[in-house]
Specification:
By secondary structure, the chain is an alpha+beta fold. It folds into two domains: 1-30; 31-209, Tgt2/MlaC (Nuclear Transport Factor 2, Chain: A, Roll), CATH 3.10.450.710. 60% of the residues lie in helices and 20% in strands. Strands 1, 2, 3, 4, 5 and 6 form a six-stranded antiparallel sheet that branches. A hairpin with a 4-residue loop joins strand 3 (135-144) and strand 4. The chain is globular. Residues 4-28 have low confidence and may be disordered.
Length: 210
């Protein structure tokens, strides 16, 4: 009986330890620092046109696979609705949906190939994440070799549904989301919501044709 009791206690202890280790590993899979490294690796592997040479079908297929991995790292709602925040009350739901969908696609059309160029042609040093008010800030120093310029960038991550996601990017201490918001506000002030939607559609159609 004593041996049975000792064996049972040992079994329970092993089970608790195994469960603890299992959940510790799960938690460690998704940290801002790990996500940051994965994001940069994906950007570097993204194919882009060089000297107007069109991508092959295989390269386009690879890009689709890479984009499918990058997109879950971006919290598009916080990015896009953050930029559109001042105008959402004067827009119809149809306009908001159209803006979100087209702007989301524009991000991939512009940011992914630009990211490929930037990270393949720069020296980058990333600091460890600094946590503040529920967000993680990863500062980096970047030297673009082609243009011989230095750029300070800070990636802002937030945990959403137990997963760290990118919600904003600061370049030389200026928020990208806020920069988009100012640009959107200027367009609406000058040309109204209709002008904003027309500007977005024109940009969207231009890039889609490439």
């Amino acid at each position: 009986m004593k041996n049975l009791k000792s064996g049972l206690i040992f079994f329970i202890a092993i089970f608790i330890l195994s469960t603890f280790l299992l959940f510790s590993q799960d938690e460690g899979v998704n940290t801002p620092d790990i996500e940051m490294k994965e994001l940069i690796a994906l950007f570097k592997s993204y194919n882009r046109e060089v000297d107007d040479k069109k991508l092959t079908l295989e390269q386009e297929k690879q890009n689709k696979e890479i984009a499918d991995k990058i997109e879950p790292m971006f919290h598009y709602k916080k990015m896009i609705f953050g930029a559109l925040a001042d105008q959402m009350t004067v827009m119809t739901q149809s306009q908001i949906n159209e803006f979100f969908n087209k702007f989301k696609e524009l991000i991939s059309l512009v940011a992914f190939p630009q990211g490929s160029y930037f990270y393949n042609n720069s020296r980058n040093k990333f600091n460890n994440a600094v946590y503040k008010e529920g967000k993680a800030y990863i500062a980096s120093e970047n030297h673009n070799i082609d243009k011989d310029i230095d750029i300070t960038m800070t990636y802002i991550w937030e945990k959403v549904d137990k997963k760290w996601m990118l919600i904003d990017l600061e370049m030389n201490e200026h928020s990208l989301v806020e920069a988009y918001k100012l640009q959107i506000n200027r367009i609406v002030k000058k040309d109204g919501v209709k002008g904003l939607m027309e500007t977005l559609d024109k940009k969207y159609q231009t890039l889609k044709k490439k």
